[in-house]
Design goal:
This protein is α+β, with helices and mostly antiparallel strands and 161 residues long. Helices cover 53% and strands 29% of the residues.
Length: 161
Amino acid sequence: MMKPLRNRRGDIPISSAVMIIIFAMVISAALYIAYVYIQTTNVRNAMNKGLSNLAVTISEDTYAALRESNFDEYAHKLTSTSAYRHSLETKYKQDVLGAVELDNDRYRIDNISLDFEVNGKKIVYTCTCDVTFYAEVFGNTVPAAANALQVFGSHTAKYGR
């Protein structure tokens, strides 16, 4: 196989050219998969950072609610559609936006949502989002990969009744 490649006349058998193209395509696919994995990890880390900041806010508000003996009201406000919940979601999206871009020519993050669940004094929050990766093929940008990401966090109220 190396003999035709060293040929100084410039003629390469078709089989050698096809093997070189296949090898280049396999390397390109492996690099793209690695890129998607790295970007997905970056987005997941940004979501975890946002959840950490959200946990601090929820912890402060939970402590205040327990001190005032209205934890059940706070839990209802957190799990129902309310202005408070909307403000938490907005703050979370801003934290994620501060860490990663939500939309560029290589990927787009959609459907960022927070879900809260209260079990006793434990508050569990779940963030989900969809990340769509794009590739440029023959001058056109097409969706190449889509990942659904989900991260979890929790806070247990330690004080109060």
